[in-house]
Amino acid sequence: MIEEKKHKIMQDDDFIDHPKFKNSLKKLIEKYPDGVPNDTIAKVLDMTEEEVESTYQSAIEKLKAELGV
């Protein structure tokens, strides 16, 4: 079951592991229009807060490189 959730998180753009939001990323974003806290992101994506921060920093670095910043 855990592997199935991980697979769905990686494959389905709208799936998160949080029944309160009907497992929908769109519904989560509606609740937090100014940004979702890292602890919540970690919970719904089955990650640690450190993994969330690392992923965020990696994305920022890639964007900077693409933009030549």
SSE layout and pairing:
Elements: H1 2-11, H2 25-31, H3 38-44, H4 49-67
Helix pairs in contact: 3-4
Entry summary:
With 69 residues, the protein is mainly α. It contains four helices and no strands. The N and C termini lie far apart (42 Å).
Can you give a write-up of this model?
By secondary structure, the chain is an all-alpha fold. It has one domain. The protein has four helices and no strands. It has helices spanning 2-11, 25-31, 38-44, 49-67. It is globular, with a radius of gyration of 13 Å. The mean pLDDT is 91.
N/C terminus separation: 42 Å
Task: Count all strands and give the number.
Answer: 0
Largest sheet at a glance?
none
Helix content: 55-70%
| Shape annotation | globular
Helix and strand element order:
HHHH
The whole-angstrom Rg is: 13 Å
Arithmetic mean of pLDDT: 91
In DSSP terms (H or I, runs of 4 or more residues), the helix count works out at: 4
Please indicate the count of domains. Answer: 1
Point out poorly predicted stretches: none
Summing up helix and strand content along with how strands pair, one would put the structural category as mainly alpha
Beta content comes to under 5%
